[in-house]
Design a protein that fits this description.
The protein is mainly beta. It has helices at residues 34-41, 130-136, 248-254, 368-375, and strands spanning 71-72, 78-83, 96-104, 110-113, 121-124, 144-151, 160-172, 189-190, 196-201, 214-223, 228-231, 239-242, 262-267, 281-291, 308-309, 315-320, 333-342, 347-350, 358-361, 382-387, 404-414. The strands form 3 sheets. Strands 1, 2, 3, 4, 5, 6 and 7 form a 7-stranded antiparallel sheet that branches. The longest helix has 8 residues, at 34-41.
């Protein structure tokens, strides 16, 4: 499987020298501290340059040329500022940026234009062409620049002078790589397969994922050089993966982890994730939640000796500690993962087949034992609960009373 989805503007390499232009000093726009801005400009902010007409060749002049007032960087990239923008921070190579842009080829024809349909594009800075990646790091939010660079429009083609007009709409900072990314600490542990890892955050559960369980994870991954490979934290969206059918290093690590645990993994070769991931990599991996495949419990018939009992007659064991203090009340809806068996260990129902949690009301339509048990739990807690016949579906909807065993994880509470 592949991790992370990044929209790539162009896969372009090789920046060659530009036609000679008038040498000018490159302005220090990147991350200018407020005190420096005050010294340079006094109390007056720099005036924005007058908007320039976009340079489009006429019918008589069909070849792009770099204007004489363009500024050049050391690499040869030429640019002109149309709008300075706001703020002081420029994007870093691993950051996500959202831009509007237009691109012209060497004969003045537009080859890409997000403005045409007003569809801004989002991508990781270092996944753009060399010229765009460099140019974007000169800009701040709201800035509008023109760029000229000699580079191939498509891989394998000869370089040509390309022109871009780019407006930087937003910057989404990337997760920061660890300061000592590739340095494996002396106290790092080792998995059976030899992958080195270090515990960053201990978990709160007692169950390890098994093959075919559904693990929900958060992750960041970097190359040895610090390039961000993939991140679920950046998009604030954890990913659910089937254990045993994922990236083999993740599969091995997850089967030793518990919910809430976070590890740093030093991977010798991450090429299983795709060609772009080939070579050493470092991943931070967090097990957010676990939906276990229903398996017949060995203690279904009777609660074990270490089970706890309450005054109602319920027996239970805590499988995973909660993360808060809030407990649900009658009339509220609980969002849960659950599986239930009869006392013979025969599966009755589970939300596993749905692959997602479900909302269940705490009301008189549910077994009284269910309502009692859930009101004792806190969010994040998981229990195995033995419900006796007199607290089951007795007298409800014509159901015959049946003693049941529930595994239930309380994910959240709704009104």
């Amino acid at each position: 499987m592949r991790f992370g989805q990044v929209l790539v503007v162009y896969v372009i390499c090789g920046l060659t020298a530009l036609p000679a232009v008038e040498a000018q000093h490159e302005p220090k726009l990147k991350r200018m501290p407020p005190e420096m801005r005050q010294k340079l400009f006094g109390s007056q902010a720099p005036k924005k340059p007058e908007p320039r007409t976009i340079l489009v060749p006429t019918a008589e002049e069909t070849v792009l040329r770099v204007p004489t007032d363009a500024i050049r960087t050391e690499s040869g990239l030429a640019y002109r500022v149309m709008d300075y923008g706001v703020g002081y921070d420029s994007p870093e190579p691993n950051d996500l940026v959202t831009v509007q842009f237009t691109g012209w080829n060497g004969r003045g024809a537009i080859f890409d234009d997000t403005r045409r349909n007003d569809e801004p594009r989002t991508f990781q800075v270092n996944r753009a062409s060399a010229a765009l990646a460099e140019g974007l790091q000169l800009m701040v939010r709201g800035a509008r620049f023109q760029f000229w660079a000699n580079e191939p429009l498509v891989d394998g083609q000869a370089p040509q002078l390309l022109q871009y007009e780019v407006e930087l709409l937003s910057i989404q900072p990337a997760p920061q790589a660890p300061s000592k990314l590739v340095e494996i600490p002396a106290d790092a542990e080792r998995t059976p397969a030899g992958t080195r890892y270090k515990l960053l955050i201990p978990g709160r559960g007692y169950e390890n994922p098994l093959p075919e369980d559904l693990a929900t994870i958060h992750y960041n991954g970097w190359t040895a050089a610090g390039e961000l490979l993939a991140s679920s934290y950046r998009v604030k969206q954890p990913q659910s993966i089937p254990v045993g059918r994922s990236f083999h290093v993740f599969d091995e690590a997850l089967q030793e982890m518990v919910v809430g645990e976070k590890r740093r993994l030093w991977i010798k070769d991450a090429s299983d994730l795709g060609e772009r991931y080939a070579g050493p990599a470092v991943f931070d991996l967090e097990l957010v939640s676990l939906l276990t495949k229903p398996r017949r419990p060995k203690d279904a018939a009777e609660p074990p000796a270490d089970a706890e009992h309450d005054a109602s007659g319920l027996a239970y064991r805590v499988l995973q500690q909660g993360t808060g203090n809030d407990k649900p009340q009658l009339g509220q809806t609980v969002v849960v993962h659950y599986t239930t068996w009869n006392r013979k260990g025969e599966l009755l129902d589970s939300n596993f087949k749905l692959g997602r949690p479900i909302g269940v009301p705490l009301d008189d339509k549910m077994p009284s034992g269910w309502n009692i048990a859930l009101q004792q739990m806190t969010v994040g807690e998981k229990r195995r609960i033995w419900i006796p016949e007199d607290l089951s579906f007795k007298g409800q909807d014509g159901e015959e009373p049946i003693a049941m065993v529930f595994d239930v994880e309380l994910l959240s509470i709704e009104e």
